Structures are given as structure tokens and as C-alpha cells.
Amino acid sequence: xxxxxxxxxxxxxxxxxxxxxxxxxxxxxxxxxxxxxxxxxxxxxxxxxxxxxxxxxxxxxxxxxxxxxxxxxxxxxxxxxxxxxxxxxxxxxxxxxxxxxxxxxxxxxxxxxxxxxxxxxxxxxxxxxxxxxxxxxxxxxxxxxxxxxxxxxxxxxxxxxxxxxxxxxxxxxxxxxxxxxxxxxxxxxxxxxxxxxxxxxxxxxxxxxxxxxxxxxxxxxxxxxxxxxxxxxxxxxxxxxxxxxxxxxxxxxxxxxxxxxxxxxxxxxxxxxxxxxxxxxxxxxxxxxxxxxxxxxxxxxxxxxxxxxxxxxxxxxxxxxxxxxxxxxx
Length: 330
Known about the structure:
Belongs to the sigma-70 factor family. ECF subfamily. Pfam families: Sigma70_r2, Sigma70_r4_2, SnoaL_2. By secondary structure, the protein is of the alpha+beta class. The chain has two domains: 3-194, RNA polymerase sigma factor, region 2, helix turn helix motif (Rna Polymerase Sigma Factor, Chain: A, Orthogonal Bundle); 208-329, Nuclear Transport Factor 2, Chain: A. Helices cover 44% and strands 16% of the residues. It has 13 helices and eight strands. Strands 1, 2, 3, 4, 5, 6, 7 and 8 form an eight-stranded mixed sheet that branches.
């Protein structure tokens, strides 16, 4: 940041302001997504943050970096949003089948996937000396889902301390809390999060191990080979489909679910690869037997543990434009 650019921005030069904040857009949006679990809400809160920064630029004193100042605005805007918006169940499209009895009914039904394309330019390395989570883990669906179960203040403290690497005193200043309150909230948040971490790391993205597993998954999925699908999964696999509340845990429960939906899935003829949350994903297309046109039916995101699939999450098509997925394929 140069003094000249800051001076121009304070004088009303929008181009100078854009040049100041553009390097931080992607990481601020990712931070809002971690806070809220919703891609669309994260985009809205990014715009709110930038507008607040533009209107309040005269009050930026430069005692902290511009990046830290933007994080302060974004985090507090997200906290205000969480306090003002009571999460209600998101209406889900009616299921074409009667699902088997789920293992449990999920609590994070507003969750949306996050396109890897929006992570370009976000620092990969730990951004501060206090960080405990690598960027790849901290954007995964499992991590973001677990974060949503934390109370808002614990959520903010965990992200500032363990993902962004701010020291306790810095996080306290950003949130307007005492250092003791930050330390206490972090201890409680870590206790909750530690139980959600996988001990078996996934294979390298786009590596040969991942490529073979993904090819087998696509083949089994499009051919309706339930036994082969389950053979690719861990014994404690999770199958989810937000905003529908049904969640299935374990190979046996997953087998019951995929068997129940098998007849409906038989029209699936194309799986267009994308990536979401640093994980393999596909747009799922089903062919209309009359017109021959394939229609987008959902977005499948999987998580890997070692050489097996440990999570399968199916999303509705609402966020398809963010993945550049067309509604139909000829």
C-alpha cells in the first residue's frame, strides 16, 4: 500500500481504492464463506465489507495493515449477520424416492460448495505464526461444516487464530474482546474441532492415486454399480445432501441409500468434472430419453481419506453458475 494510493482513495478515487483492496478480495470472501457456510452470503458480505471500507476509509489510521483492517470489518459484519439472521431450514426440492431411515438429520442445511476457481490468489501457506490449519484443510467441506456448529464468537476466534494466524492480542483487538475472552473461546472451539479432523490425509490433488480413484467413482456412479461404489468408500463414510436433512453414516447405511435411489440415478449419463472446497466434484447430468438432452441434476463433491472416499455430498443446482456448469448438454 502506498501513501499516494491511499491519499487518492480518500479523495474519492474509486480506481485507487480498487487497487488497494483488490489483492485481498479473494481471501476476504473465503473468510466470509468459512464464517457463514454459504457461497451466496459470502459474496454479499464481501460487497458489504468493501462498501464499509470505502465509506470509512477516512477513519483508517494505518496502525494495522489494510489487510487486517479489512478482516476486522468482514469478521464483524459476518457476526452481525449471524446475530440478525436466525438460520431456518432451507426448502429442499422434493426427493423423487422415499429415502431410507437416515443415521441422523443434519444441522447445517444451508451449506453450499465453494468453487476452487475462487481460491486462486488466496495464500496457500499458513498466513501467521499462530495458524494450526493449512489452507487446504481450512476450506474443506468437513472443516466448514464443523465451524458452522460453533457459536458465532467461537467461530470468529478460531478462524482468526488458527486459520489466519493472528495472535491472541491481535484477535482481541479485531473483535473488541478481552484477550482472556479470546483465549477462553479458542479453547472451547478447539475442543469441538479436534474431534472432526481426519487422521488419514487425502492423496495429492490431480495425482495418479486420486485420478484412478475418481475414474472408478465416475464409472460406478454412472453405471449404477452400488457394490462398486461402496467398495470405494471407507467403513465410516458420510453421505449428505443439503438442504435435505438426511445424512447416512457408514458403509451399510450408504449402501441402503444408493440402492434406494438407484432407479432414479439410472438416467445419469455425464459427470462434468469441477473442483469445490479443494475437493473433487462433478456436475451430474441426466439424459431425457425423449429429447436426448442432458439436464444438470446436482453437484457431487467427495472427500478422500487415503485411497478411499470418506464423504459424498450432493448439492442442488443453485450454485451451478459459479462453477460455469451449463443447465443442459446436447
